[in-house]
Amino acid sequence: MKEWSRPIGIGLVLIDQLFYGYRKKIMFTTTITPRFYETDAFGHINNIVVAGWFEAGREDIFRVFTPELDPKKLPLILARIEVDFVAQTYYGKAVDVNTWLAKLGNSSFIVKQEIVQDGKVVAKGKAIQVYFNHATQQSERLPDVYRAVLEKHVREEE
Asked: Is the pTM above the cut of 0.85?
């Protein structure tokens, strides 16, 4: 028997959820309502918008480092982003951006994401975030205080 649960709200809480018959650890779910200007002439969401939605989905990870989301205090840079467009995304229907951690390195971590609309994955993403000292313009080892929080949310890849 499949049990379906729905994440309620957001926060640094591990959310166990069943999706499509296998178990995932979703760190955060952010619901976004597509805006009219994000569409093309056919009512599809423009591809470039998806990268912005993925960034919005990473905001709760940013809060681990700066709870008030002050960009001047955020010790992270985005080193890489990948997006796979799996299906068309449409205006007029909300999307959920599911976000979790795939791997922690010495100074970086990999964030995996997916966008779901109407119960169907429409895009998959991967971002590499690097802990970065803006004063020295150098990456640094991820401090233990942040590592301890993030380690709790690493999802083993299937």
From this structure: no
